[in-house]
């Protein structure tokens, strides 16, 4: 049995967990002082040695990303924190910033020091105004405490942090679209190369890191590489937040070493909703192929999940029990991708538009057998063809659900309607009211 | 004068060798896969890709399979998914398999094709693009015979008018972003951009109410650009041409024709001195549209909207098809023999006998090299006068001497390519956007790599778009400013390749040519003369200036005259000093000229009293395409062909010969042929019956030797700034590209994109008028009243108005040119 390891979430239960005092009392900002006494190169090496991998979904080694920055040419270089958490199911960064914003800010300062950045940006999803306020307050507190500003704690290191609220677009979680948006342009992905490490924000060398990745840095500095590498599996080191949502007794954030299994997590979370069984789940958010009961013992690390045909992603475990119509769930996700497609490339823009219409037809019982094949064909025209990875993500749940639950799609076609009682799946009072016309296509 | 190709550039380029569909190809490093494939004749379908625009990778139609050597052993490693060939550059040893050899690539392309079509309307039968549409062609050759899409298509209100000329049907749009990229990258007029997202993403316009027009509002309905300035782009028509579907159309061509009914003829635009290559599409003798032809050394892929849309003028109801002879005070149609005889008789009556007065020839700046040659030869051989001038604008002896010494017969000088690569360009009496056509686009191409310095009364929006810095100069003061340029500009001019550009308005600034040449010799910069009209350089080459014979020979040099006389087989050429256009008009008005031969001149372009000149001249022969003001006052009118109906040559500002053939065959004759026939009435074989004959003569004459060229004129530059009294200002003025010039008649949609006429003044000058919202600019001859726009950084004591825009016909109404002191009065 794997135990929880509250590191980022250690102080979440404290009174006024978001305040500087609470954070400092729990040992916060001590790692900063330690880091300021180190050589930046040693910090980068430590993060490299820790094996910390990007917690935003792709899992790219964080230290290596820092190491891609070209040698200092005297000009500015930037750290941009990707806090545009927007995917259905993914809900780890927002609680982190809500409950312990200083963990992020301390991570920002140490990371900036390591990579030689004097102006860092936190690009926050625009809708979460309460988190925006928390971050602004935390940054203000950090300035007042001398953790930010000029000559931080006498180290000679200067750092300013700008918290920027986006306008609410999923695409801005894609790092180059985020940079365009941050520069005041329309948020659409850029051509790569050049990669952000070479020409990122304002065409200067830039590191773009996820909130959780950056917030993990102080602990690594504080407790050491060995402590971190002792957790996790061979190539997926350390701990991570596992966000359980859906038909689970105690949904929430479970911080545990990578490699923990859903079975273990479910035990900690009180199991699936009483009287029901797990039907399917996403290991890493709605952009990852779905899993079923067969994957309860799959270690939740990058390699094992990948080998099982999905992706660890953002460890957003959305759990669905046997009352859930998979077609309905997939339709909702696909509507999200249609709504959030940035429109730049044909496959994602047109494909998600088409997929949504087919899925809605099937779900309403107006689909045909050919429509199921059409779904797969259209997914085939999107996956691997789109400009950025978000197009691929839109197809994951469709392809995997047709593969795993084809008979359920067929049942919709044969019965001319959905075989499920939707109110049974709901966690609240629910009745099937006629769907209102969508105002925003 | 004979060079027609750009000068060869000896550059060593790094190359990369790769294999595409089994064919090995070596291309320069940095080449995109899609371009490399073109070199071996493999066409990869594409929509967003355009060779002149930065890669976008948006449409995904050009996906191909790519493998490249990786690892220490260089083993081929295939990319896991198909790659966009329009964004990926080639690498050594790369192996590319296109739709021809890779099933995966073919499947990917077909998938994208299907997706592109799901929201595309099936309105090809009524779409202007139908028949020449890349999407339609691609769908026909590679698409499914029947759509699998049975759901609801996205629709938009249509069309969205971006300007009076450019219309957008959004439901046809495939969002390739060619138009938005063109407007940002090439023209610098970002008037449209992507809006909304997903399937609702669309090309949209900016909000006029939120933003401000800053005095650049167009005449017609229009949208604003991202800076809040009115979309009054002079290059917007290019977006219609590069649109790979029928989403962008022009009001002028919309629903007029099917491409397969059109006959296409290559030609050269008659609208400016760039000599842009165009394609004339016509049907049953009528021009339906004009397009840009790719000419890599001149206009590349682009033309101005004037080049594209201004062609209706020649087929208006006032088009002349038969000669007219004045009988009993009325112009009546006559046969050619009758009209030619009447013309000759009329001229002879005025120029012979006891009360003989002279004859003079005004050729206008719009005629071809051959026509200009014929006009001056007629003047010198038949009429015995040097009173011939093709410069229907402010001209000076200083300019003429410069043209004779430095321009005529010098062949290819500074080229478009060299202008683009020049590290520094100083503009004198020249506004690239308004007066240069595609010259502006070439300069803009070097934005950020080139320092542009505008010697002008204020920094125009066109100059702003070039990132130019202003060296303020009141009109007429350019020479003194050039002599005293800031040190950093001088230094910049000393860089190899720097260019000083003199426009037609340099002739309005006494001493400017000498000052520019002094500057050139002291810094090593080169000088380029970029006139505005298409025929100007050709007229200089042909000698259609009072003091210049063909090839830059000076009339004042006897040896030069003798050489030309010998070539022409005449005893001698007239040696008396000829008058320029203004001089001819003045002399005619004073009654000292008996006969006038006028071709292609708009009376309203001249500051002189043209009406009086026509009245006082005993006999006027007009060669015209349309019944112009001058034709109406003439005694004999000889109809001539517009450029589309004749062959000929324009010499562009580079000195490049831009020959064109007849696009539409009619029985209209060129000026040179009509003049050849007219000369026969005197028993003279002018030898200008055909283009070939004229060019043979020009070739035989060749360029003048140095000793035969005119000496530089001694002109004193005005010593100090004019200090206009209260209520007066120095007039600054130039033509806006889209204005009320005669060659833009009959095209209301284009006219709507022209900029509204305003009067510009500095804040201080404007303040002296009190709380004025408009300004009345007046001279003894008349007045114009225009809205006042206070212009930052403008020279004090100067008022700028456009030369010939709606409500502002400076030459006709003020009888004044730049540099004149005019009265200004504010109006609330």
How would you describe the overall organization of this protein?
The complex is a heterodimer of chains A (441) and B (828). Chain A has 441 residues and is an alpha/beta fold. In chain A, 43% of the residues lie in helices and 11% in strands. Chain A contains 18 helices and 9 strands. In chain A, the strands form 2 sheets. Chain A has a 5-stranded mixed sheet, with no helix packed on it. Chain A has a 4-stranded parallel sheet with strand order 3-2-1-4, with helices on both faces. In chain A, helix 3 packs across helix 6 (101-115) and helix 14 runs antiparallel to helix 15 (346-363). The longest helix of chain A is centred in the last third of the chain and has 27 residues, at 389-415. The model of chain A has no long low-confidence stretch (mean pLDDT 95). Chain B has 828 residues and is an alpha/beta fold. The longest helix of chain B is centred in the first third of the chain and has 16 residues, at 103-118. Chain B has 26 helices and 38 strands. Chain B starts with 14 loop residues before the first strand and ends with a strand. Chain B has a 7-stranded mixed sheet with strand order 16-15-28-27-26-17-18, with helices on both faces. In chain B, strand 15 and strand 16 (330-333) form a beta hairpin. The radius of gyration of chain B is 28 Å and the shape is globular. Classes of the chains: A alpha/beta (441), B alpha/beta (828). The A-B interface holds A 169, 171, 186, 188, 191, 338-347, 349-354, 357-358, 361, 374, 377-378, 380-382, 384-387, 440-441 and B 55-61, 63, 80-82, 84, 87, 107-108, 111-112, 114-116, 118-119, 148-149, 151-152, 154, 174-175, 193-194, 196-201.
